[in-house]
Amino acid sequence: MEKKIIRDMREYFEADLATKYKSTAGSQEAVAPEVIESCLEQVERQGYVIIENLLSPALVEEIRRDVVPRLTHSSGRNTFEGFRTQRLYAVIEKTSVCNDLVAHPLILGLLDRIFQPNYLLSQLQVINILPGEDQQPWHYDDGFYAVPRPRPPLGAATIWAIDDFTAENGATVVIPGSHKWVDRVPDTGKNPEQQSVVMPAGSVIFFIGTLWHGGGQNRTDAGRLCVTAQYCAPWCRQQENFSLSVSRDRVKQCSEHIQRLLGYSIHPPFMGFVNGMHPKRLLE
Ligand SMILES: O=C(O)CCC(=O)C(=O)O
Predict the structure, then answer these.
(1) Is 65 helix (H, G, I), strand (E, B) or coil?
(2) Cα 109 to middle of ligand 1, angstroms
(3) Is 244 exposed, middle or buried (0-12, 13-18, 19+ CB in 10 A)?
(4) Does residue 208 have its Cβ closer than 6 Å to ligand 1?
(5) Residue bearing the CA closest to ligand 1, atom 2
(6) From atom 1 of ligand 1, which residue's Cα is the shortest distance away?
(7) Contact by Cβ (8 Å): 266, 278
(8) Cα 101 to Cα 104: distance, rounded to the nearest angstrom
(9) φ, ψ of residue 165 in degrees (nearest 5)
(10) Which ligand 1 atom is the nearest neighbour of the CA of 125?
(11) What is the pLDDT of residues 189-234, one digit of tens each?
């Protein structure tokens, strides 16, 4: 066995000590630097960026065909879930149709610039806002980490439009610039500064966890379908307990990137270990 000499704490914290499974963070297909920079400039300024038509119409249709039959209940359990909103949880265990969205190279390219390597998927959901749903209460997604603002984000999220998002059908609402608010809280309900994330099916909004937002009110007679993935810094607890919700057989079928995002990865020097070893040994 190789014996590693580590001289100080800094070296210890930065070292990839794993021998067999080196970190694959940042190894996805590269995206043009000017695209990443332009997106990050918007995220820095307004807290979010909307990228239109990132998915092919064929994939959008494949997702819709796969997920809609799985949405069998008609109501959430509280105002946050929405009493006229359908949600599908444990998505990766049930279907792999959303995996390409979770590990999309542009999204990972942005996350690479916001978080330390080996950031994690925090949760993945399908959300269908049904006719008559009210606007969701305002929230910011990393608010459950009790670290006072202002601060860098501890999470980031994507909301992928599977239906066209319109101001009438429940498009996500955001308050531009609210990621910089310190202790200001939006008034309950509609807000004069809010904007609807109007975008065609196949588009995505990427935003950081400090941005105030919510699901929009649906005043139409059709649903508003999306897939949403949230990510967190590599040392934060994931919202969905993927170790328990995604079976090992399922994980084995996932790409290297999805495996890493689920938690089959190490945040140096050793966060995430299993029996003192890299968690990917469980997949052997
Ligand atoms: O469905 C949406 O547009 C947003 C949902 C959301 O923010 C949430 O459920 O946390």
Answers:
(1) helix
(2) 23
(3) exposed
(4) no
(5) 215
(6) 215
(7) yes
(8) 5
(9) -95, 125
(10) 9
(11) 999 999 999 999 999 999 999 999 999 999 999 999 999 999 999 9
- Which residues constitute the domain of residue 208? 30-283
| 155 ligand 1 Cβ < 6 A | no
Both structure tokens of 272: 């995430």
Q: What is the CATH number of the domain that holds 87?
A: 2.60.120.620
271 C-alpha to ligand 1 centroid (Å):
30
pTM of the model: 0.97
With respect to residue 16, please indicate whether it lies within any of the assigned structural domains.
no
Picking from 159, 165, 174, the residue whose alpha carbon sits closest to that of residue 222 is 165
* Count of structural domains within the chain: 1
Question: Which residue's CA is the closest to the ligand 1 atom numbered 5?
Answer: 215
Is residue 24 in some structural domain? no
Closest to 88 (Cα-Cα) out of 59, 124, 134: 124
**Domain presence at residue 21:** no
Q: Please indicate, yes or no, if residue 210 is contained in any of the structural domains.
A: yes
